[in-house]
Amino acid sequence: MADLETFREQTRAWLEANCPPEMRTPMRSEDDACWGGRHFKFQSEAQEQWLRVMGEKGWTVPDWPAAYGGGGLSPAETKILKEEMKAIGARNPLSSFGISMLGPALLKYGTEEQKKRFLPEIARGEIRWCQGYSEPGAGSDLAGLQTKAEDMGDHYLVNGQKVWTSYADKADWIFCLVRTSTESKHGGISFLLFDMESEGVSTKPILLISGYSPFCETFFDNVRVPKDQLVGEVNRGWNVAKYLLGHEREMISGMGLGSGTSKTLAQSLGEIDDAILAAEVALFDVDALAFAAMSEHFIDQLKAGEAHPAMPSMMKYAGTELNKKRHELIMAAGGSDALEWESERSRGGKAPREWLRTKANSIEGGTSEVQLGIVAKHILQLPGA
Amino acid sequence: MTLLTDDQRQLADMTRSFLAEEGTIKKQLRHWRDIGCKDGFGHGLWKQMAELGLTGLAIPEEDGGLGLGATEAALVMEEVGRNLTPSPFLTTALVAVEALKGTEQGKRWFPGIIAGETVAAFAVDEGPHHRPRQIALEARRSGNGFALSGTKQFVVHGASADVILVAARTAGSAGEAEGLTLFAVPRDAAGLEIENVTLADSSKAARLTLSNVAVDADAVVGEVDHGFEPLRRAMRVGRTGAAAEMVGLASGASTMTLDYLKQRKQFGKLIGEFQVLQHRAAHLFGEIEIARAATWKAAELVDKGDDRAGLMTHVAKAKAGRVSALAVQEAVQMHGGIGMTDEHDIGLYMKREKVLDALFGDSNYHARMVRMLAA
């Protein structure tokens, strides 16, 4: 314990000396997030410096092994780092699908060579990744995907189309599910990594109801992918995908917290003069604070290896439904102010655009219905599910 | 860290197997109900719980107890809830013990509680809703003690209790937290009239009428006029315990329902194959997990004496109340007609849930408190 106290003191001192003051202010919007990558335009020197110093220390991924660019910290030390960052309001130095999704999958399924090649770049925020899963005909029924990868000896030849590829137009590389065999639905899928600048890759943004276009359609036309960029075994990519989806669901479920952990919805809304809305907000706060307790418990369970493999589905379902409810209440409390789509005082229609964005929460990463089905089958063991 | 320690797991396992054997609905709840027992619980089981150390679980070690906290209490309460086991554990071993900690009255009553011979009750409510600040039962100074006059209701195990902790007003007026005092009133006090009331779940909760009940000055628990503090401490423990009992109850009802979904056939299929029922069952599963996490968190904060304990206790009681209500409603509905029969146990869960939700403040009361504290 004494060691942990020393670690806490050293961490506090290091953060104090190295976290720029601008990086200790709350993010104003999603645009303030730092994504890194080859073409990322930093918003400030402070943002660039914060990513660099944290990346050098491996603290963008504190619990990954130091050999792969991580911080090599124990779970207890990682928790302390997070607590100390929170204490000074330090921003997350890097938002990254490489960290939250691909990294854990590479740590488990990647070859030593792949780990050494890709993980340090992810840790330092040098490569921005996107995820090529869904296709026009394979959304919730993901295993129905058709994008084909033909074995050409030293490389695969990839042809097909992906959809809902988040930030594909800004990503450097893609981790992608492809069909290498048609003999079995789940058993013919492989997991490939490749450069988005490869010949034959093109992207097209999709405009959403929120007016934003974080998603793209992504097209592959005779894309050559070297064979050493296959993760895991050929035709066994479904295992990698499932593992990675678990991590994605953990990440998305965290969104249900919103600002609910430190600040309840009642606090952020202020005075409410409608009795029925006030009651709904009170009940929402009960749900949100209870879910925050569950999140803490769930994270501890995960770290201790005690979480049921299907628990991320439960968390994803509960967290995203909660987040949708939260934004419905924010809209109700805001009245006509919350309807302004473009105005100075509405900060460019923040409220309605965020409200609309949350509707995707219960669709992306597996719909709420898919998650409930997984819980029913794998945890409750109901028949025929 | 929100995971259980090895000791806590052992306690939970021990209690689970003990109550699954001795605390069952058939041996306890139905038995005492069907013979019309005036206490609504078995003293034999209370004695067995004493032999396991459970009755003294929360009593400090220097007073002969195990000196454990709200977290351990929650683990026991969850098993009580799962089996609908009637016992004075919540009101005596948790609530009364918390109020009596560090007092002379504690020294008097703790040995009997540890031995499983003493039952204590807690009298707060004066109307159909829990409103502790509105306490109006009057305690007038009289001679070297006090004279208590007024009424209480929903006093769980009131007619079986050896001592009743009565929250009374010694100063100020209804609505104020200051001016309240807790008194330990023996059951045989002159002027104390106890009406033994049977509730919907066949448990017993008395209605008290006090007419100039004379008590000595040493009947005061804690300090005169400053009874809100021990009352609040006891309520926190009681609410966390009741929340844990509801989590156990919800979990028990849900297990029974899942078993039924896996064996009942309609339209030539197991009803558990119907997606609409699967999704409702999966939703309920998550809600129960969340309610349990909230309850454990509340218990942890109570044990740490953390500032957020009050807020989290309200969250836990409100969440567990709503989740357990959902659990029993889904349980009876999914059981169909058989669930409406007295012969089947599932209806007993529904009746017990309603009583537990009301105990120490219902979900609406606690949601309102969350809003007050959060806004």
In short:
The complex is a heterodimer of chains A (385) and B (375). Chain A is an alpha+beta fold and 385 residues long.
Q: Structural class from helices and strands of chain A? A: alpha+beta
C-alpha-based Rg of chain B, rounded: 21 Å
**Mean model confidence by pLDDT of chain A:** 91
Q: What share of the residues of chain B does DSSP label as strand, in percent? A: 15-25%
Strand content of chain A: 5-15%
Shape of chain B: globular
Molecular structure report:
- The complex is a heterodimer of chains A (385) and B (375).
- With 385 residues, chain A is α+β, with helices and mostly antiparallel strands.
- Helices cover 43% and strands 14% of the residues of chain A.
- Chain A has eleven helices and eight strands.
- In chain A, the strands form two sheets. A four-stranded mixed sheet of chain A has the order 1-4-5-8. In chain A, strands 2-3-7-6 form a four-stranded antiparallel sheet, with no helix packed on it.
- In chain A, strand 2 (148-151) and strand 3 form a beta hairpin.
- The radius of gyration of chain A is 22 Å and the shape is globular.
- The N and C termini of chain A lie far apart (47 Å).
- Chain B has eleven helices and ten strands.
- Chain B starts with 5 loop residues before the first helix and ends with a helix.
- Chain B is globular and about 80 Å long.
- By secondary structure, chain B is an alpha+beta fold.
- Chain B has a four-stranded mixed sheet with strand order 1-4-5-8, with helices on one face. In chain B, strands 2-3-7-6 form a four-stranded antiparallel sheet, with no helix packed on it. Chain B has a two-stranded antiparallel sheet with strand order 9-10.
- In chain B, helix 5 (89-100) runs antiparallel to helix 6, helix 5 (89-100) runs antiparallel to helix 7 and helix 9 (309-335) runs antiparallel to helix 10 (346-358).
- The mean pLDDT of chain B is 96.
- Classes of the chains: A alpha+beta (385), B alpha+beta (375).
- The A-B interface holds A 264, 266-267, 278-279, 281-283, 285-287, 289-291, 293-294, 296-298, 300-301, 304, 306, 314-315, 317-318, 369, 371-373, 375-377, 379-385 and B 1-3, 258, 261-262, 269-270, 272-273, 275, 277-279, 281-283, 285-287, 289-291, 293-294, 296-297, 311-312, 314-316, 318-319, 322, 363, 366-368, 370-371, 374-375.
